[in-house]
Specification:
Strand 11 and strand 12 form a beta hairpin. The longest helix has 24 residues. Strands 4-3-2-1-13-14 form a 6-stranded mixed β-sheet, covered by helices on one side. A 6-stranded mixed β-sheet has the order 6-7-9-10-12-11, covered by helices on one side. It has a two-stranded antiparallel sheet with strand order 5-8. The protein has 8 helices and 14 strands. It has a single domain, classed as 4-Layer Sandwich (Purple Acid Phosphatase, chain A, domain 2), CATH 3.60.21. The relative contact order is 0.18.
């Protein structure tokens, strides 16, 4: 077992258990389009990274009692270099440790093949979701179409859709077909609304198309925009839903607040938090990420030396 895997096991065992919501608010924390990044950017002022995300998640759960934490897809690295398969494995383990509840599948998550993603999903406590990716041979959903998660006294339904014009990588297109995302969203929301208090959509379709889903599919409360969504500082209301676009490379994090009257949604607000140095880093996560990146760099050096 890798050294960072041993650390992950220890950290997962010591994770705090979330309790009841303390401020009549369900926070929804969201990321998308990380494209393999786990560290702050190499900008003049470094932004982002898993260690800062961990800090935001922890402080939010302390303040509000719990939070829903989701990623709307394309967090995975490129598959051009075989050593990067270790990165998607690390990301799955680390996101579980950080407290992610659900992942919406983007095309990059399929970079290493359908079987690989299914294996990672089966081994993870995170719900790996797609409501409109179907197996061509069986005609059945290729992945779990939705999840119902308990947050405080609430039942929160989460689902994900992918855009039909997105090119699937490698040989994935021979195995999977992307069904109409609007129709899939309508059918899934109808199912979730029968027992859920809050419904969250992970729309890996692009910003404009995601806002169209918010407009065309009643019953959604929060719409996380992904697939090159851009950065929007404040969430935008579309009918009864709110949309949030927090940019790429995990430099920012979407923070949506679902205000509640009992178990009913009474109001919604959202903003994108830029993960600047003053956000702070969780030290154990920072060490974990550094150890992983150091190991990857060593692999790359050996690879270059042998070429």
């Amino acid at each position: 077992m890798r050294g960072w895997s041993l650390v992950l096991v220890a950290l997962l065992a010591s994770s705090a258990h979330a309790g009841a919501l303390t401020k009549k608010t369900l926070p929804v924390l969201s990321t998308s389009d990380a494209v393999g990044k786990v560290t702050p950017c190499g900008c003049h002022t470094p932004k982002g990274g898993f260690a800062r995300i961990a800090s935001v998640i922890d402080s939010t759960k302390i303040k509000y009692g719990d939070a829903l934490v989701v990623d709307a897809g394309d967090f995975a690295p490129d598959a051009a270099n075989p050593i990067e398969e270790a990165r998607i494995e690390f990301q799955f383990h680390a996101m579980e440790m950080l407290g992610y509840d659900a992942i919406g599948i983007g095309e990059r998550e399929l970079n290493f093949g359908v079987a690989k993603l299914k294996s990672l999903a089966a081994a993870s406590k995170i719900a790996v979701l797609s409501s409109n990716l179907y197996d061509k041979k069986s005609g059945q959903p290729a992945f779990k179409p939705y999840a119902i998660l308990k947050k405080g006294g609430l039942k929160v339904g989460v689902f994900s859709v992918m855009g039909p014009k997105i090119d699937l990588p490698a040989k994935t297109g021979d195995e999977l077909v992307i069904m109409d995302p609007v129709e899939a969203a309508k059918a899934t929301v109808a199912t979730l609304r029968k027992e859920c208090d809050v419904v969250v959509a992970l729309t890996h379709v692009g910003r404009v198309e995601g806002e169209d889903i918010a407009a065309q599919v009643p019953g959604i409360d929060v719409v996380i925009l992904a697939h090159h969504p851009g950065f929007v500082a404040q969430g935008r209301r579309v009918n009864d839903a709110i949309t949030i676009a927090s940019g790429e490379q995990i430099q920012n994090m979407g923070i949506t607040k679902v205000l509640l009257n009992g178990k009913k949604v009474s109001d919604l607000s959202a903003e994108s938090l830029i993960l600047m140095p003053e956000v702070g880093e969780r030290a154990d996560v920072a060490r974990l990420v550094k150890d992983f990146e150091d190991a990857q760099n060593e692999k790359f050096k050996k690879q270059q030396a042998g070429s």
